[in-house]
């Protein structure tokens, strides 16, 4: 999870950034401020991974902020003045967003930051195939009733009951677990999670989605409806999905 701080001397601009950050699964908002001195303190204390930084501010400009911060975090500049772009890139900013900022452009900048994060270790190679005629070892039973997922801080784990999961959405090395009243985002691939969940009721139906068959409200063609969410069924998983729901 990338910890974000939004810094701007205009409250409406901060509200837009806060809303955009809340919509990106791998970003978490740790604060907003109109005071660049306060923001600099947060950066120097190591409380921030990414700053969305306005350039034109009283007391301390965004470019002065960059020089004082000492590259202790990633920075995306936000401004209404395109003439500062070159100087921003000379100070190693990740991206430069020109106001008014669209969500599509914001998401592109966020993905640039994500691409600069340390890569997850490669998945281990599968074990060699057993010789023909060999008796396979007994399969391990899945964990009964629940699982634990990593929280937003080190050594924090959250218990998630299987019966509460509506569906799970993957985004690069993160998954978003959708529950009836909240959404949990954790650092894990969808493939890794799919291998630990009991099947059924959980089934992967798309490269980006795992659903709970128990929570499906309706299926219409190649679209699954869970509450108000529409989830596509891709061709890769279509036959298995329809076979299971016909047998249910």
TrEMBL record:
List the SMART domains hit by this protein, alphabetically: LytTR, REC
MF-aspect GO terms: DNA binding; phosphorelay response regulator activity
Does the UniProt entry include the keyword Transit peptide?
no
| Residue(s) carrying 4-aspartylphosphate | 54
Q: Note one Pfam family from the annotation.
A: LytTR
Query: Which PROSITE patterns does the UniProt entry name for this protein?
Result: HTH_LYTTR, RESPONSE_REGULATORY
Q: Where is the Response regulatory domain?
A: 3-114
Tell me where in this chain the HTH LytTR-type domain is found: 149-247
Report keywords, A-Z: Phosphoprotein
Which named protein is this?
Response regulator transcription factor
Species source reads Hymenobacter telluris
């Amino acid at each position: 999870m990338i910890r974000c701080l939004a810094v701007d001397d205009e409250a409406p601009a901060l509200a837009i950034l806060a809303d955009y950050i809340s919509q990106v699964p791998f970003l978490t908002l740790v604060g907003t401020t109109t005071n660049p001195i306060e923001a600099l303190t947060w950066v120097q204390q190591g409380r921030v991974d990414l700053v969305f930084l306005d350039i034109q501010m009283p007391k301390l400009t965004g470019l002065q902020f960059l020089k004082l911060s000492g590259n202790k975090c990633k920075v995306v500049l936000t401004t209404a003045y395109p003439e500062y772009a070159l100087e921003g890139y000379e100070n190693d900013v990740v991206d430069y967003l020109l106001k008014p900022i669209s969500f599509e452009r914001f998401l592109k900048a966020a993905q640039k930051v994500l691409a600069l994060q340390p890569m997850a270790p490669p998945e281990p190679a599968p074990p060699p195939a057993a010789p023909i005629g060999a008796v396979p070892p007994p399969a391990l039973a899945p964990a009964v009733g629940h699982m634990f997922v990593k929280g937003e801080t080190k050594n924090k784990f959250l218990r998630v009951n299987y019966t509460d999961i509506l569906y799970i959405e993957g985004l690069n090395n993160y998954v978003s677990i959708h529950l009836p009243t909240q959404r949990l985002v954790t650092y894990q691939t969808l493939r890794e999670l799919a291998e630990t969940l009991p099947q059924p009721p959980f089934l992967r139906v798309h490269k980006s989605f795992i659903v709970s068959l128990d929570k499906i409200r309706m299926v219409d063609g190649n679209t699954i409806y869970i509450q108000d969410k529409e989830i596509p069924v891709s061709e890769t998983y279509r036959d298995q999905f329809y076979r299971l729901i016909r047998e249910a």
